[in-house]
Write a structure and sequence with these properties.
Blueprint: H1 26-36, E1 44-48, H2 54-61, E2 66-71, H3 74-87, E3 93-97, H4 100-109, E4 114-119, H5 128-138, E5 142-153, E6 165-173, E7 176-183
Parallel strand pairs: 1-2, 1-4, 2-3, 4-5
Antiparallel strand pairs: 5-7, 6-7
């Protein structure tokens, strides 16, 4: 696993030990950032269920203004810090060891807003996909032109719309799917 592009291009990234995380492949990560494109420049990015931090680190490397990482696994949080240090990033990030749903409440209370919210829940926890999408639909964390991207198993169905969010794109990559949501007009 490595940083694909930007100021940290080529840097190797560690993954947490064990099988509790499922790092994104370089191919899927590259496809994701091809969709986002140059809009990542100066964007505020939220990486939920961060694992190794690979996606948020890629956003920083490509010019994101700020990235917030949230993962509830202390081992994963240690690895995120190691990967950030290895890439030489300054103070343009925050890392929280917290339950994602609680973390979303805290961010909402603090008035945080993001251009991109990347969500990569554990595939083994069936109900978490709807729980986190319903919470993202309730809390006001997305900028008006922002995007929520959630990675699921290929055959996991997610609603076309929630009360405030609408799916505008989905792509399949092997056993994974990426679903893209924006705020309804």
């Amino acid at each position: 696993m490595r940083v694909i592009a930007g100021c940290a291009k080529g840097k190797r990234l560690k993954a947490p030990s064990g099988n509790t995380t499922r790092p994104i492949t370089d191919m899927i990560k590259e496809a994701l950032f091809n969709v986002i494109g140059p809009q990542i420049q100066d964007a505020r990015f939220l990486d939920l269920f961060s694992g190794s931090g690979s996606v948020g680190i890629e956003a920083l490397s490509r010019g994101a203004q700020q990235v917030i990482f949230i993962d509830n696994n202390p081992g994963a949080v240690r690895i995120i810090y190691e990967n950030l240090d290895n890439c030489g990033f300054g103070d343009d990030y925050e890392v929280y060891c917290n339950d994602v749903l609680r973390g979303l409440n805290v961010l909402h209370k603090n008035g945080a807003k993001f251009d991109y919210i990347y969500v990569d829940p554990p595939f083994t926890v069936e109900g978490i996909f709807m729980d986190v999408m319903k919470k993202l639909d309730q809390v006001d964390l997305l900028q008006p032109q922002g995007t929520i991207i959630i990675r699921t198993r290929r055959h996991k169905e997610l609603p076309q719309a929630f009360s405030r969010l609408i799916k505008y794109r989905h792509n399949y990559y092997g056993e994974s799917a990426m679903h893209y949501y924006s705020l309804m007009a």
